[in-house]
Design goal:
Helices cover 31% and strands 17% of the residues. Helix 6 runs parallel beside helix 8 and helix 12 packs parallel to helix 17. 50% of the residues are buried. By secondary structure, the protein is of the alpha/beta class. An eight-stranded parallel sheet has the order 11-10-9-5-2-1-13-12. Strand 19 and strand 20 form a beta hairpin. The structure holds 1-O-alpha-D-glucopyranosyl-D-fructose (TEU) and calcium ion (CA).
Length: 555
């Protein structure tokens, strides 16, 4: 019997970015039938659930995170019949489905917004946030997450609407109970189609301080306080939980950037009946500087380790952690936290060991199981609206010389995660027979699923073994208490102590060989070099990016 026995606590979840996963009809864009064709692949990898990034009708300004109809499938991805087929294929293979629930904003093309903008007194006006301008400009000086003003003037009524993201993504007005009800109806629609869970986009941004006063000092910090984990946010989630999540037994994961463990517990403590999990961002924000994420810096491994330890210990007994090192908004994890050159395979496997053995629910982003890497794009090859906004702003403000800005986008930008999945070494990488919508990483001749599945020592096979290993030691990896042991900087050594067994994990996050204490009586179970780390006198010698899982055995 597990203490934490909910399906989403036991699951390994795989994220699919549909546009880049598999193209079923040769138009260069991934689609639903492409995904259905890969259910066998997911099953053999061993994942329990899939989180699907948006597939709803959308003009595609933010690749589907700008929705014009919540209850329709975008034709680029297929039809509702294709969706129903996908749900059955997943369920017949024991895979649950989590949909992206983008409820902070819609597209400007959504019917609600088209009605809303028509006049100041129409019934949909209050579905969005409209204000009169001030002194010939925007109602206040707040900026959007993607740069530029958070307000856009609409010619029809001469008023401004509020948007935390691009101007094509107007924010819904969550203060309006009709909006909350309408969103519950959307959720019900998908729940009735058999969906098992929701990943809630920008979950902690829904409530805003609608006084919209100018920010006069500490701009970034004070701006965040206006809409991150603001005021009534918890009321909204209790309402959604009562009306929707609990009603249909949906698992929920809220995307919550800039949230500390205490705030996190307010979302995920079971007694609060709000969300099951959140994606917190601390370990994704360690490198930020003056221009936010647009910064060359990388974080020293010790900072990453400290952040992981902080969340392991502070959430224990209070709420469940989600575990991830990348997603569709982040650079590739092996390029960011490992070494995507000489030690690509070793460092990808080392990160996988940590991902699969900390307490929480691990998320694998598509291609990470292949150790897919960042790509280097020229400015005109880029697609991401966030990068585009930053580069345009940089042209005006000159934060960086233009080539430097492009280099930074290549390090930190979201297109890195969105290049097509590399299925084989043939033309189009097995992703498409057409022209791919975004450049395929030229490394696909070596880094691809077909080659890696055949190679017993590949990153792919290591993921598969780790998932199976985790499952066969479920009690210790799910319920077991986490405890960090002292070890030299750049290494991460911890134990998980369960009812019947204790596991010890040793990981070297650097390219140096480092000796660390590990104690006696450890039996290597999983390791990322051909043989386990060299041990003697209670010490282990960890080669570059070497990691292992050890079982503590009786003397
Ligand atoms: O991201 C929300 C978010 O906070 C982003 O600013 C994220 O931190 C950023 O992309 C990282 O650089 C969600 C989605 O995951 C993202 O793909 C969407 O673009 C965004 O919402 C708007 O819907
Ligand atoms: Ca297609």
């Amino acid at each position: 019997m597990l203490k934490n026995d909910k399906w989403w606590q036991r699951a390994v979840i795989y994220q699919i970015y549909p546009r880049s996963f598999c193209d079923g009809n040769g138009d260069g864009i991934g689609d639903l039938r492409g995904i259905t064709g890969k259910v066998g692949y997911l099953r053999s990898l061993g994942v329990d659930a899939v989180w699907l990034s948006p597939i709803y009708l959308s003009p595609g300004v933010d690749n589907g995170y700008d929705i014009s109809d919540y209850c329709a499938i975008d034709p680029v991805f297929g039809t509702m019949a294709d969706f129903d087929e996908l749900v059955s294929a997943f369920h017949n293979n024991g895979i649950k489905l989590i949909m992206d629930f983008v409820i902070n904003h819609t597209s400007v093309e959504h019917e609600w917004f088209r009605k809303s903008r028509r006049s100041t007194d129409n019934p949909y006006r209050d579905y969005y946030i409209w204000r009169k301008g001030k002194n010939g400009g925007a109602p206040c000086n707040w900026t959007s997450v993607f740069g530029g003003s958070a307000w856009t003037k609409d010619e029809i009524t001469g008023e401004y609407y509020f948007h935390l993201f691009t101007e094509a993504q107007p924010d819904l007005n969550w203060e309006n109970p009709d909006v909350r009800k309408a969103i519950v109806e959307v959720g019900k629609f998908w729940a009735e189609k058999g969906v098992d869970g929701l990943r809630i986009d920008c979950a902690n941004f829904l409530a805003k301080n609608c006084d919209f006063e100018d920010i006069t000092e500490n701009f970034d910090e004070n701006l965040r306080k206006k809409f991150i984990n603001y005021g009534p946010i918890h009321e909204y989630f209790r309402y959604l939980n009562e009306q929707l999540f609990s009603e249909y037994g949906l698992a929920t994961i809220g995307e919550c950037s800039r949230t500390d463990p205490n705030e996190a517990a307010m979302f995920v403590s079971p007694d609060r009946r709000e969300l099951d999990l959140i994606f917190q961002f601390e370990h994704m924000s360690l490198e930020e500087g003056e221009h936010g994420k647009w910064n060359r810096a990388s974080a020293p491994p010790e900072r990453l380790i400290e952040s992981l330890v902080k969340w392991q210990t502070s959430m224990a007994g209070r709420g469940w952690n989600s575990l991830y090192f990348d997603n569709h908004d982040q650079p590739r994890m092996v390029s960011r936290f490992g070494d995507d050159g000489k030690y690509r395979a070793e460092s990808a496997k080392m990160l996988a060991v940590i991902l699969m053995t900390l307490q929480g629910t691990p998320f694998i982003y598509q291609g990470t199981e292949l150790s897919m890497r960042n790509i280097s794009l020229k400015r005109d090859e880029m697609n991401d609206c966030e990068a585009e906004n930053f580069l345009a702003e940089n042209d005006v403000c000159g934060y960086y010389p233009p080539e430097e800005a492009v280099a930074i986008v290549n390090l930190k930008g979201r297109d890195n995660a969105r290049t097509p999945m590399q299925w084989n070494g043939g033309t189009g990488a097995g992703f498409t027979v057409g022209k791919p919508w975004l450049k395929i990483n030229p490394d696909y001749s070596d880094i691809n699923a077909e080659a890696m599945i055949k190679d017993k020592s590949s990153v792919w096979n290591f993921y598969r073994e780790l998932i199976a290993f985790r499952r066969s030691h479920e009690e210790v990896f799910i319920d077991g208490v986490f405890s960090r042991l002292g070890s030299p900087a750049g290494t991460f050594v911890y134990t998980r102590t369960g009812r019947d067994e204790t596991m010890c994990v040793t990981a070297n996050l650097t390219a140096r060989t480092i000796e660390t204490e590990i104690g006696h009586c450890l039996r290597p179970e999983m390791f990322n070099y051909a043989e386990p780390p060299l041990t003697g006198n209670g010490k282990a010698l960890l080669r570059p990016y070497e990691s292992a899982v050890w079982k503590v055995v009786d003397v």
